[in-house]
Amino acid sequence: MALHSHPLHGDAIFVLSQSPCVESTFPNQLCRYGYVTNSKVKFVMVVDSSNTALRDNEIRSMFRKLHNSYTDVMCNPFYNPGDRIHSR
């Protein structure tokens, strides 16, 4: 699987495979998206390609929100690295 990098935001890059939509063993197609931070934290999102409501800018927005939430957790002085992250 070849990966290509594209600038997304000042401190992160948006990584997509050469063909972001790939056929799976299921009847639907799945699109996979990846996001890598400067500190090498990787987030992967897999969505059903039949959901045409999702656009690239919405995917980027979701990754930014996820990255911000992850950063908030990591900066919390009461969080122990390696502990499970729970959402409310």
Keywords:
disordered N terminus, 1 helix, 88 residues, alpha+beta
Structure characterization notes:
The protein has 88 residues and is of the alpha+beta class. It has one domain (3-75). Helices cover 23% and strands 36% of the residues. Strands 1, 2, 3, 4 and 5 form a 5-stranded antiparallel β-sheet that branches. The chain starts with a strand and ends in a 13-residue tail after the last helix.
For the sheet with most strands, the description reads: 5 strands, antiparallel
Number of strands: 5
Q: Write down the overall geometry.
A: elongated
Helical percentage: 10-25%
Low-confidence stretches: 1-27
Q: For the record, give the distance between the C-alpha atoms at the N and C termini, rounded to a whole number.
A: 36 Å
The tally of helices reads 1
Order of SSEs: EEEEEH
Question: How do you describe this structure in short?
Answer:
By secondary structure, the chain is an alpha+beta fold.
